[in-house]
Amino acid sequence: MTITTPAPGSPVAYKDPVRQALARRRARRDAFVGMASLVGFVVVVAFLVSRTPGWPAVQETFFNGQEFVDTFPGLLQAFLLNVKIFLIAEPIILVFSLIIALVRTLRAPIFLPLRVLATIYVDVFRGVPTILVILLLGFGIPALRLQGVPTNPVVWGTTALILSYSAYVAEVFRAGIGSIHPSQRMAARSLGLSTFQTDRYVVLPQAIRNVVPPLLNDFISLEKDTALVSVLGPIEVLRQAQIDASSTFNYTAYVGAALIFIALTIPMTRFADWVQARMSKRQRAGAVA
Amino acid sequence: MTSPVLLEASGVWKSFDDHAVLRGLDLDVHLHQAVVLIGASGSGKSTLLRCINGLETVDAGTITLDGDVTVTDPNVDLDKVRRRVGIVFQSYNLFPHMTVIDNVTLSPRKVAKIPVAQARVEAMDLLERLGLAAKADEYPDRLSGGQAQRVAIARALAMQPELMLFDEITSALDPLLVGEVLDAVRELKLGGLTIVMATHEMGFAREVADRVCFLHEGIVLEQGPPEQVFTAPEHAQTRDFLARVLA
C-alpha cells in the first residue's frame, strides 16, 4: 500500500493513516479492558455476597421470585397514584415558583409586603423537611373540620409537595434570573422596553433556558418524593409494598417498588444529562457577550 | 452651525461612590451633527452617553432633548426618551435567544406596537441597507463581531431615533472588521442622523466628525472642528493625549 501525503496547502483534512490505525487499535483495547474489568468486578461482588452467612435468608426475604410475580402487578397499579400526584404537582410548582421568584426580584417599594411574604415562604418551606410538611398539612387541615375543605389525604399530600418543592424551584429560577448579565437588561431598556417587557421578552426566556438542567433534577427528586405521601395512608406504591410485606413477612415487594422508581428515574436522569451536555456544548460554540 | 440644538447637557455631575466621573460637563449637539467624544479611558465618555438616554441618573445638572424633554427630570418617562435616543454598545448586547430579525423588530413590535408584518418589512429594509439581509434568520452566535455590531445598529435604528449614541462600538472588534462598522456609521451620518460617538478611531473621527470634543477629568476640556483639534490643539492635555493615541 502506498501512502501519498497531499501537497501542503491542499484543501483537505489529511490524517496520517498509520497513526489513525494505531488510535483505533488503542480504542479497541481500552474498550476490551473496560468490559473485562466490569465483568470481573460484578462476578467478585456476586460471589462475596452469596458467601455471606445470611445470604440464603436475605435471598428468600427480598428476592423471592414467586412473591415478586404475585405482588408486582398490584404495585404497578398503585404506582399510577404516584404518577398522578407527580403530574398534578409539577405544572403547579413550575408556575407558582416562577411567580415567587419574580416577586423576589421586584424592587419597587410598593411591593415590599409581597417581597417579604415571598422571602418568608421560601425560608420556611426550605427549612422544614418535606415529610413534616406532609404530616402537618395531611393531619392538621382535615382536623380543622372546615366546611368545604377536602379531607382527602391525597389532596393534602400533593399540596404539601407543591409547597415544599415550589420553595426550592423558586430559588432555582431566581438563580437563573441572576445569571443573565445586566448588559442584557440595559440593552432592552435602551430600546424603550418597560421593566415588565424586559423580563418577559429578554430576561426570562434566557433565564429559564439556563436552569433547565437543575429543574429536571428537581423533577426527578419530586417523582421519588411522591412516596412520602404514603405516611398519610393513601395506597400508592410504597404503601402497597408495606401492605404486601406485612401480610406475608416477605420484603420482595419493597424491591419491586424500588425497581419501578428506578425504571422511571433512570431515563429521566439520562435525559437531564443529555440536555445539560447539549446546552454546555451550545454555550461553548457561541459565547456572545 | 445654524441648525437647532437637539441635545443640551449643562453642568452635569455624576459620581460612582466617591469617584467623580463627570464634573459639571457642558455639551451642545446640533441637529444633523456628528459629535465625536475622545479622551482617555475613564474620562467619562461612556458615562456621559449613558446619562443621555437615562441608563444612569445624574447627580446634578440637566440634559435636555429637543428643548422640550428634560432627561434628568426625575419624573420624566424614560421609556419615551429612549424611543427617541438609540444607543449601541461596545459589547453588541444582542439578545442571544432571538434571531437577527427578531432582535431588530422586538422594540417596534412591543413598544411602538407596529404590526408584525410591517415591522418585518421595515427591519428587512434596514438589514438590507447594512448588508445583513442574508443573516435575518440567523441567531447572534452565528455572526462575526462586525455583523453582530451592525445588527445592534439596525436594532437601535428600528425605533427611528432622532439621536444615535455610539459607545466605542469598534473597540471589541477584530481590526479587520472595524471598517464595515465604521462604513455603516458613515452612511448614517450622510443620511443626516444626529450622532454622538465615543471612539478611539482617530482617523474616522477626523473624517466624519463635525465637531470633536476632548473629555478630560469629567469636562469637555477642548472642542472644535476636527482639523483644529487634531492639528492645533490649545491645551497641553489634548496635545499629550493625541500624541499618545496617534503614536
Keywords:
heterodimer; A: 289 residues; mainly alpha; MetI-like fold; 0% strand; B: 247 residues; alpha/beta; Rossmann fold; four-stranded antiparallel β-sheet; 10 strands; 38% helix; 26% strand; globular
How does this structure look, described?
The complex is a heterodimer of chains A (289) and B (247). Chain A is an all-alpha fold and 289 residues long. Chain A is built from eleven helices and no strands. Chain A has a domain at 83-233: Orthogonal Bundle (MetI-like fold). Chain A starts with 16 loop residues before the first helix and ends with a helix. The mean pLDDT of chain A is 90. Chain B has one domain (5-246): Rossmann fold. In chain B, helix 3 (100-110) packs across helix 4, helix 3 packs parallel to helix 5 (145-157) and helix 5 runs parallel beside helix 6. The radius of gyration of chain B is 18 Å and the shape is globular. Classes of the chains: A mainly alpha (289), B alpha/beta (247). Chain A binds chain B through residues 183-184, 186-194, 197, 201-202, 205-206, 209, 282, 285-289, and chain B through 53, 55, 78-80, 82-83, 86-87, 89, 91-97, 106-107, 110-112, 139-143, 148, 155-156, 159, 172.
How does the helix and strand content of chain A classify structurally? mainly alpha
Order of helices and strands of chain A: HHHHHHHHHHH
Write the H/E string of chain B, N to C.
Answer: EEEHEEHEHHHEHEHEEHH
Q: Uncertain regions of chain B: pLDDT < 50 for 5+ in a row? A: none
N/C terminus separation of chain B: 32 Å
What is the topological layout?
The complex is a heterodimer of chains A (289) and B (247).
Chain A: H1 17-50, H2 55-62, H3 65-105, H4 112-127, H5 130-143, H6 153-178, H7 182-190, H8 195-210, H9 212-225, H10 237-248, H11 252-285
Chain B: E1 5-16, E2 19-30, E3 34-38, H1 45-52, E4 60-65, E5 69-70, H2 78-84, E6 85-88, H3 100-110, H4 116-129, H5 145-157, E7 163-167, H6 175-190, E8 194-198, H7 202-208, E9 211-216, E10 219-224, H8 226-231, H9 236-246
Parallel strand pairs in B: 3-8, 3-9, 6-7, 7-8
Antiparallel strand pairs in B: 1-2, 1-4, 4-5, 9-10
Helix pairs in contact in B: 3-4, 3-5, 5-6
